[in-house]
Q: What sequence folds into this?
């Protein structure tokens, strides 16, 4: 309230009051009281979740866990929300003022707070989703402290509870922040996820073998949250890329308008100020989105090294392939990323991105079905795409490690062969009846399903749609997979249609072969091959 009043009135008295409010909590006496308050609050909240009468040190270091908790304990649910929010605000405040050394004033503070945050981010104990999302900033503070003076990082590595639960916590929190609250809080989820990805990458870097082993175990457990995590990570990557492209187009338009003398002179001082304000805002948005894009991209690159298979599930492989192709195309072809001469000043190094993209393709090059799915991407894939990248890299003297280069080149060749095969298949089924086609994508269905709205869609298509938003795309009503009904009669008709078309193709091929034998001029010699 004081800050808002200050910006409106710029009254000196208010400034002095504001400064006094900021300085007072930094005194050693107040800091000690606040640290004790945070420790006490965290201990009380933890005890409401998992009651115990043991001493605090024993409880925190040996007893506390949240496994097997099926519902929110009533004693925890009865507490007012501000008990937690006040504690969180105090924690953030003292992290902004590390000169207080607050973490050293109470040996239990970091331990209790860390366990509380991991618990609340892992379990649906809070009804206020936005408050729950705000707790992710705790991890941002923990791993972004360059000199590691907070003591939180050492507690990550030294506590068995945290070692076991930290990555699970990151995944679960990453998923639930998709629904952060009101419509005006939509963009907050990206900042929340930034903190979570920073934490994940930091843990892999510092405790590489142990954390990667835990991650592999988590990915092979068939936990649904892993697939949702991967889906939202790809969604964010695609969103940032689109946002940046749109903003770069706006920046280009305004810069061209301001750079043209005649049009510049026609603008009134108010219009000119408005244009410059808009330009400044667009540039800040681009910088912010590039920072978020870089973090998502770094996470995807690291994950394709550790567990490339997580991107290869039937519901995700298409989205993963299309997003890579689109980004790759933007790095080498005329587009806003290439046209923008000062994009490096916004935080994006195009050559580094291109090298990392090639490495991602290489990391996943041997995964079953990847080359085929790449060639199915009608938006960005062309038969010349991979060769264009190779030529671009060579002409610009960009270094790519030989192994990645070789795998990327081979993958491009496989995708090209697949493209030719799929092209023939599309032509084969181009006269398919409309009833055989998916109502959303207008493609030939393999497994037709009837929605409650009576529309018929392919199972693969609707599953992908429901991962992003669990609603019927035709009437916006809530929808779950269990509500879909297989249309077995239609499926049988489609399979019969495909068999007939394939038999026709074989018959034509046989007929063409017989004609070749009769006419030696149509035969191809070994030298011609």
A:
């Amino acid at each position: 309230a004081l800050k808002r009043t200050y910006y409106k009135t710029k009254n000196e008295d208010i400034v002095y009051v504001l400064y006094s409010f900021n300085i007072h909590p930094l005194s050693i006496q107040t800091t000690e009281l606040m640290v004790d308050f945070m420790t006490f609050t965290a201990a009380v909240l933890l005890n409401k979740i998992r009651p115990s009468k043991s001493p605090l040190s024993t409880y925190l270091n040996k007893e506390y866990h949240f496994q097997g908790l099926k519902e929110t304990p009533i004693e925890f649910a009865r507490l007012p929300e501000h008990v937690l929010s006040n504690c969180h605000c105090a924690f953030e405040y003292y992290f902004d003022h590390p000169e207080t050394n607050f973490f050293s004033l109470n040996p239990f503070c970091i331990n209790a707070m860390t366990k509380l945050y991991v618990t609340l981010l892992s379990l649906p104990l809070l009804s206020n989703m936005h408050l729950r999302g705000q707790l992710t900033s705790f991890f941002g503070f923990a791993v972004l402290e360059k000199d590691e003076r907070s003591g939180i990082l050492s507690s990550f590595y030294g506590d068995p509870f945290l070692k076991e639960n930290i990555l699970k916590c990151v995944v679960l929190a990453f998923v639930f922040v998709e629904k952060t609250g009101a419509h005006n809080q939509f963009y907050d989820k990206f900042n929340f996820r930034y903190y979570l990805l920073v934490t994940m990458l930091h843990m892999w870097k510092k405790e590489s073998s142990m954390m990667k082993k835990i991650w592999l175990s988590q990915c092979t457990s068939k936990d649904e949250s892993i697939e949702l995590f991967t889906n939202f990570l790809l969604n964010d990557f695609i969103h940032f890329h689109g946002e940046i492209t749109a903003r770069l187009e706006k920046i280009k338009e305004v810069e061209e308008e301001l750079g043209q003398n005649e049009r510049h002179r026609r603008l009134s001082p108010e219009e000119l100020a408005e244009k410059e304000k808009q330009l400044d805002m667009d540039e800040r948005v681009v910088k912010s989105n590039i920072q978020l894009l870089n973090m998502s991209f770094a996470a995807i690159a690291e994950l394709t090294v550790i567990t490339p298979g997580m991107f290869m599930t039937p519901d995700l492989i298409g989205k993963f392939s299309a997003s890579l192709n689109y980004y790759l195309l933007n790095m080498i072809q005329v587009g806003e990323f290439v046209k923008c001469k000062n994009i490096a000043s916004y935080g994006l190094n195009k050559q580094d991105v291109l090298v990392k993209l090639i490495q991602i393709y290489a990391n996943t090059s041997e995964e079953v079905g990847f080359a085929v799915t790449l060639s199915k991407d009608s938006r960005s894939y062309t038969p010349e795409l991979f060769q264009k990248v190779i030529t671009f890299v060579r002409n610009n003297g960009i270094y790519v490690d030989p192994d990645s280069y070789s795998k990327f080149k081979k993958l491009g060749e496989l995708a090209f062969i697949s493209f030719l095969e799929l092209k023939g298949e599309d032509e084969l089924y181009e006269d398919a009846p409309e009833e055989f086609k998916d109502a959303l994508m207008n493609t030939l269905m393999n497994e037709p399903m009837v929605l409650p709205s009576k529309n018929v869609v392919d199972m693969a298509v609707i599953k992908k749609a429901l991962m992003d938003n669990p609603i019927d795309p035709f009437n916006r009503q809530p929808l779950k997979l269990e509500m879909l009904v297989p249309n077995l009669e239609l499926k049988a008709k489609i399979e019969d249609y495909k068999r007939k078309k394939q038999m026709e193709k074989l018959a034509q091929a046989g007929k063409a072969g017989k004609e070749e034998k009769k006419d030696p001029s149509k035969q191809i010699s070994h030298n011609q091959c």
User: Anything to note?
Assistant: The radius of gyration is 29 Å. Residues 520 and 526 are 14 Å apart (CA to CA). The chain is about 65% helix and 0% strand.
